[in-house]
Structure formats: C-alpha cells, structure tokens
Amino acid sequence: MLYYALVFLVIALIAGVLGFGGVAGASAGIAQILFFLFLAFLVISLVAGFFRRA
Known about the structure:
Blueprint: H1 2-18, H2 21-53
Helix pairs in contact: 1-2
C-alpha cells in the first residue's frame, strides 16, 4: 500500500510540473489517503503484535 501511495505521489509531482492541475490534485489526494491508511494498518499491526507477545 505504501508503494501505491508513493506511485501516486510521483504522478502528482510530474503532473504538477507539467501543469495538469486536476490530475495533480487527484493524485495527491489519493496518495494522501493511501498513506494514512498505511499508517493506520501499521499501528494496528504493531498493537496486535504487542498484545500477542504479552
């Protein structure tokens, strides 16, 4: 999932440089959503691993 967030971030950066505002905004939004989902899953897996060991 983090890979896809980085891919959409790169697409947003390239589209922003080339002047495609709509594409850049949409790609940046998708990258942001995927990044926060990745962080949420990371925290959930860390908490689950902590309780499983304890």
